[in-house]
């Protein structure tokens, strides 16, 4: 029959529930990509309304559409909640799969550290001077945010699935209300205003756009939970792309048409303009909605990265059995807690610019790797079953993705030359990823060697027992013949 060992129980893969239909997957994608219009304001100050409007309309065509199409094809061809690490493993092998997995983790950690920072900054907008965050009050508020997200994620995908729609509605409603109230006083002439010169910091401009439109690739971490992926993925990607674009476009149109001081906009200006539109109460609702939106981001990305890490461990790419322990909601509770602690500690470093540049550079590298894995498999495995396939040949795809890959390369270059600190952090991340890979490979080879020795010993014991039994049988036969 065979023995049931601890290792066999750990390695057994649970059958994941197919709970995500088109609506749920589209909602998850929308939250990962957009969530709310907050954060897009600086591009209006840099490019003025006309360039900002054109950027919001054109950027999805060059980045969101290619990124989402890659996710659709690869998630259907290789359905695993490991997402990109499994795609790249199939295309380029273990080394590069490990590196992309490591960079994705650091990128998500950097992204998660941004959200507690944004929440505290926006909350301070509506607090009187004597109640501003400082010292331990800042630490306590961010601890509450991270702890709340941790608890929600420990309750599993059903709890996250219930919370996300509710939080999304609460985060969008104040912007809709502000737009309706401002509509009678909107001046459409503002929309055609160009910046006084083209001397724009295009690196920051692209960084903000990429940060506001990234997140499609994380949906690969839910592919095992998706019903009818060949139709659900494409529909959900189209719906989320359209809604995200509109949710960025309309506030820019309404708020810039209402406020002639758009050249001074910065992060949080939507809240300031809403005060002019409807007074203090409207500003408070917008600020609270932005905090809810960022808490929503934190929930979604924490869930996504825990699924990613769980699959990484389950596929033996990361030799860490300890992390595979599940709670009653089938969540790897140790990974959730560790990610929440890391997010809290990272959020204590309140340099928003450092985190966002690090996040964008690593995200751009991972998106390029996803694209190359798709092209590699199209070339090397043309007969691989693909329930959804981008309707272009290999060479046509190579031509069509040139603008997409060029934008990602520009983002990487612009990000790395931003500051010396960014370069040092990136080099450290790359070197540490290589070292971790070889340490992991050494541990696995050592374990396999020990397992091989144990197998040899078991065979020797079985052989000895068999020979002993044969000797006993011979002895009994001899005794019987002697008595006869």
Structural class: mainly alpha
Shape: globular
Q: What characterizes the major β-sheet?
A: none
Strand content: under 5%
Distance between the termini: 40 Å
Total number of strands? 0
Elements, N to C (H/E): HHHHHHHHHHHHHHHH
> Rg, please?
27 Å
Arithmetic mean of pLDDT = 80
Question: How many helices in DSSP terms?
Answer: 16
Helix percentage range: over 70%
**Spans where pLDDT lies below 50 across 5 or more residues:** 1-13, 471-476, 478-484
Description:
By secondary structure, the chain is mostly helical. It contains 16 helices and no strands. The two termini are 40 Å apart.
Descriptive tags:
single chain, 484 residues, mainly alpha, globular, disordered N terminus
Outline the secondary-structure elements:
Elements: H1 6-11, H2 22-33, H3 41-77, H4 84-92, H5 94-125, H6 136-154, H7 157-182, H8 202-213, H9 229-258, H10 269-278, H11 280-314, H12 333-347, H13 352-380, H14 394-400, H15 402-416, H16 420-483
Helix pairs in contact: 2-7, 2-9, 3-8, 3-9, 3-13, 4-5, 4-13, 5-6, 5-11, 5-12, 5-13, 5-16, 6-11, 6-12, 7-9, 7-11, 8-15, 10-11, 11-12, 13-15, 13-16
How would you sum up this structure in a few lines?
With 484 residues, the chain is mostly helical. It has 16 helices and no strands.
